[in-house]
Amino acid sequence: MTGASASLKGGKKFLLAPSLLDADLMRLGEEIKRVEGLFDWIHVDVMDGHFVPNLSFGPGLVSSLRRGFPNSFIDVHIMVEPAERFVDMFTGVSPDILTVQVEATKHIHRVLQSIRAAGARPGIAINPGTPVSAIETILHMADLVLVMTVNPGFGAQTFLPEAAAKLKELVRFRVVHSLDYLIEVDGGVNARNASLLVSTGCDVLVAGSAIFKQADPVSAASAIRESASRG
Questions:
Q1: Which of 22, 40, 45, 143 is flagged as catalytic?
Q2: Does the structure show a pLDDT above 90 at 81?
Q3: For the chain, is the Cβ count within 10 Å smaller at the N or the C terminus?
């Protein structure tokens, strides 16, 4: 891998991105600091109660994270509809990556262009029921492709193994077309499947409940990293 995506990975085999959706919101800063040194990115899930059946976070949290953790890489995934109405408010708080659901907009080209023009890296997310073929014509515009391996809306769901088959398709398409996007997986990621996901082609592992809902988040994050390193 070369170019922009290689620089994002920094020579690492994989990246770990804890999802704040499952953190203790009363102690969010402490929760992040507790696993500092074990993660590469901070993952923020934004939900509107419309595109997905849940509400979570907003640009204010991203702005606070940028101030509180100025050196951290902030990976924002907006599950909102229509996506184009939310782009400006989130690019305005300086995420490193802003990922939109392809199913949540009729104007995906324009949305990706506007994200990049605003100074963030654009990402495309696909739900478990959406095939890779639905995004092939726009993959050249993305720095990240997020494969949802659960139906989005809530944390602590069971991993859908059939969704992971898309990783092979995305790896193959990336090679054939000399593209440079990273492949991210979100949903049911844990120490039991991290190795398989990395070996299949995943570059970025998003884990929420498998870290923050455990009795010892540090040990849990370490176990995921150890598993992923065998992939």
A1: 45
A2: yes
A3: N
Rounded Cα gap, residues 207 and 17, in angstroms: 6
CA–chain centroid gap for 88, Å, is 19
Fold of 3-228: TIM Barrel (3.20.20)
Residue type, 157: Q
Whether residue 186 lies in the annotated active site: yes
Catalytic residue among 75, 143, 186, 203: 186
Confidence band, pLDDT 50/70/90 cuts, at residue 4 = low
Are residues 205 and 146 in contact, defined by beta-carbon separation less than 8 angstroms? no
pTM for the whole thing?
0.94
Residue 96 a catalytic site member: no
d(CA 123, CA 104): 13
- 208-226 tens-digit pLDDT: 999 999 999 999 999 999 9
Across-strand partners of 78?
A: 46, 100
Domain extent listing, the chain: 3-228
